[in-house]
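Usage

Read records sequentially. Each one opens with the input sequence:
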Amino acid sequence: MSFRKAISLACGIAGGSAVLVCAAVTADNHGYFGERCRFRRTLAAVYAAQPAAWPTTNGWDNNWDKREPSSMVNGKRKESAGDSGSLDVENNKPKATRHIFLIRHSQYNLKGDGDKERVLTPLGREQAEFTGQRLEALGLKYDVLIHSSMTRATETANIISKYLPGVELVSCDLLREGAPIEPVPPVTHWKPEAVQYHEDGARIEAAFRRYIHRADPKQKEDSYEIIVCHANVIRYFVCRALQFPPEGWLRMGLNNGSITWLTIRPSGRVALRALGDSGFMPPDKLTRT
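and closes with the structure output:
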């Protein structure tokens, strides 16, 4: 085999399957390429550059929200019920898709003394107006508007609600800002005490379990729900919903008033349709504080 052909084959292998590389190495070991062929060294270099292993299993946990239909039926009852057990599983299958819009609050007064004084700035109020207009323009039938009980999130939700008449407003303490889990890699500009991660983490995880899951089997139509809360909460939710390492939450940045859109299918599959979308705002109105 000519050296030129060997290089061509090696380059083809490098851009293709690792299986072919292994097969070629095996053939070379049996002497099919000749003792003095320079292809051996070329092939060895290509083989060394391949990933050590390719994932062969699906790591997705189908029962991540503990609502997988078969898990909703008592095991002993299902075993003794026979065909009726299969019917129970069928009856517990979700049929609707949930669309969850996670809205980060608008810009607020960082110098406020305590939560009550950390109200929206004039720019923050403008941002909330833009967000409300965007949600209205989507033309969706929203079911509920849930918001953190902190002042900046409450004010943002109230402004948005002007554009969504008839949508119920619900306040929730679980959605308050906090430190969900120690970030990896660590950062130097923000280092909460370990006890804050311990306390906030449990609360924010409880919020995730309450709001981020597949539809109830009784739900017949797709739902569109809005949650106005905080950057740390949203970033943690996204990592958990996509089954990414939650410690990576701080690697994402979200503008004030931005929209993050999660879709949860009846099968439990989750899709991130938008992350921190703020393209509906003029560039001079964008902030991330």
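Summary fields computed downstream for this record:
- Residues 194-211 form the longest helix (18 residues).
- The radius of gyration is 26 Å.
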